[in-house]
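Input/output pair, single chain:
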Amino acid sequence: MNEIRLGHRAIGAGHPPFIIAEMSGNHNQSLEKALEIVEAAAAAGAHALKLQTYTADLMTLDLESEDFYIHDSGSLWKGQSLYQLYEQAYTPWEWHEPIYKRCRELGIIPFSTPFHPKAVDFLERLDTPFYKIASFENNDLPLIRHAARTGKPLIISTGMATLAELNEMVEAAREAGCKDLILLKCTSNYPASPADSHLLTIPHMKELFRCEIGLSDHTLGIGAAVASVVLGATVIEKHFTISRSEGGVDSAFSLEPAEMKLLVSETDIARQALGTVRYGLSDKEKSSLKYRRSLYISKDVACGETLNEDNVRIIRPGYGLPPKYIDQFLGKTAAKDIKAGTAARWDMLG
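Output:
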């Protein structure tokens, strides 16, 4: 695979995991709050800030029909109509430019999830460096093709998609011109259970689709995200808020600043810890060799005296012969007088 760049950052196994803070609707319809979220995400070390670009009218219909209401018993948004939810959660399009500007001033990369081709066209005017397709839109092949035709990197969440649907999606993106594709393992529950995350899918997806794989994580905390890095994830997306107590459509499963900072550091530690397949002594372990066990004369021994378990022991430090030679010493006679505390050597044997 060629190295992918998302904005000014390179993506891949040799680089720190790319951490995306998703604002979603946690701004609670306040531009001031949105800009505070940008500042908090940048201060926490996130590499990118993700918006969602849609209007309620581009998402659904404003109808009273039961089809357009949320009935799931475990949903955070049970009882709301889809139109009401999207009106509450959407980010006004006129906010995008000041949010992008603030991101760029702070060195964090701004981008968005478009939910309609018109949103892609709008984001192109803001010089959006790459695009994200949400799980619920990963079956919208016309939208995927429209975003892919920009020639920019494309990130697609895989929640709910069957393997056949994933194959269709990947083919559509690549045939439309997407050269840099990243798939995010995703469980489309809000919040999601770690037990439903099935992170072992990550290396399988990487092998099947020959592209970078990441995680769009809706679990609470950072444990699943850290584990995903061990399995090869190079991009992590988490919802982000300044404070869950302030509310917001996604606040219940969003990270706060201290948690985001921990996510950035711990995922990179996990990546560094992977290293390579290696056995034996590392350069930094050389100084510790002296603390291994070895053979020592444990009591004064006179020349001609028999060596036994009472006067030859396996102990620390490690300056004597390795413990595996203990049987070569027991029962032999000493070739000279030996003081207690002397590291065992072959010339001691008669």
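The longest strand covers residues 48-53. The domain at 283-348 is CATH 3.90.1210.10 (Type Iii Antifreeze Protein Isoform Hplc 12).
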